[in-house]
């Protein structure tokens, strides 16, 4: 798709979700925007590959047209984007590729359902199918999703305790129930019907059916007014107004900051694979602007190391990588392992006089990330991209190692 094609479109200066479509009208990519007009225009900048990634530049070249859906708020655009990506699984959305680190929102199947934020991996590891009533996500940006939930909490009061409501043994434990951040209420049969109605409204809201929620609330408001319960009617009136005029300024600011900070960063991740020191190989994977850049992945057959010495093998890979100045340097390097691998990488970088922060991803016995060793600010900004790059390096290393063993 060319810039001239975009000029024929009357994109609105409003929040919403946009779709890049291919030659057969298939959805190639879905994104959200504070301003559809400004956001879609940004895909036709001359330096798109640098700002986003080569993959996104390729997507724009492949696209034939762009369509969009306007939403009443950025919050609703965030939710709609997640729902559509999950259902359509577009070719160029890395979120659709089964990444286990992204946030999910679930509503538990309990007497008093809880609304919980969990990682995708916990869906199967911690919950049975019957434990979950509703499931939304994944949501790629932790910071945006955190701001979004702050807004949702102002609209709907819900429980998000670690343990099921009613499992508390003492009065003190019951006092710790987190109902809209301690407003002093505790669940009983007397308020269960009202709470379940709230859960229904949360579900409808995350399904993109805000109009249905408002319609139900307006009927309830009229009933209260007819019964001269004016205080209850006024409370519902205020909730309807809040839904019709969602205040998401913080979300808009956070989204703009995210695009400024995240879209330019290049992350390189490294991993070593072998079988008891045999057929040892190393790989480099690349994530740019939150998107995998597979065309820039590299393979290394380890030459200088014998036996199971991952840090030494990592040193060799990094030394050989740094002999290629034509490859753009990353802003972050990710290694699979602990302090030994982190120290090995930092030693190589110091030796050649290159200052690049190194993140170590510590894994458990099932090779699941349990801890990241790096500066706190770095992790706050780029945790999702770091985990994505690491997951890709592990997958790519295993794939390369298996192929070497087959040949041998």
Strand content: 15-25%
The global form is globular
Task: Report the helical percentage.
Answer: 40-55%
> Termini separation (Å)?
45 Å
Note the main attributes of this structure.
13 strands, Nucleotidyltransferase, domain 5, GIY-YIG endonuclease, alpha+beta, globular, three-stranded antiparallel β-sheet, 15 helices, 408 residues
Brief summary of the model shown:
The protein is an alpha+beta fold.
Q: Would you give an account of this structure?
A:
The protein is α+β, with helices and mostly antiparallel strands. It has 3 domains: 3-74 and 81-90, GIY-YIG endonuclease (3-Layer(aba) Sandwich); 103-255, no CATH class; 265-407, Nucleotidyltransferase, domain 5 (2-Layer Sandwich), CATH 3.30.420.340. It has 15 helices and 13 strands. The chain has helices at 3-7, 36-41, 48-51, 54-62, 74-88, 120-125, 142-155, 171-175, 189-206, 210-226, 230-244, 249-262, 310-321, 339-352, 376-407; strands at 16-21, 27-33, 65-70, 103-108, 115-119, 132-139, 266-275, 278-288, 291-292, 298-301, 332-336, 358-363, 369-373. The strands form 3 sheets. Strands 7, 8, 9, 10, 11, 12 and 13 form a 7-stranded mixed sheet that branches. Helix 7 (142-155) runs antiparallel to helix 12, helix 10 packs antiparallel against helix 11 and helix 13 (310-321) packs parallel to helix 14 (339-352). The longest helix is centred in the C-terminal third of the chain and has 32 residues, at 376-407. Residues 180-184 have low confidence and may be disordered.
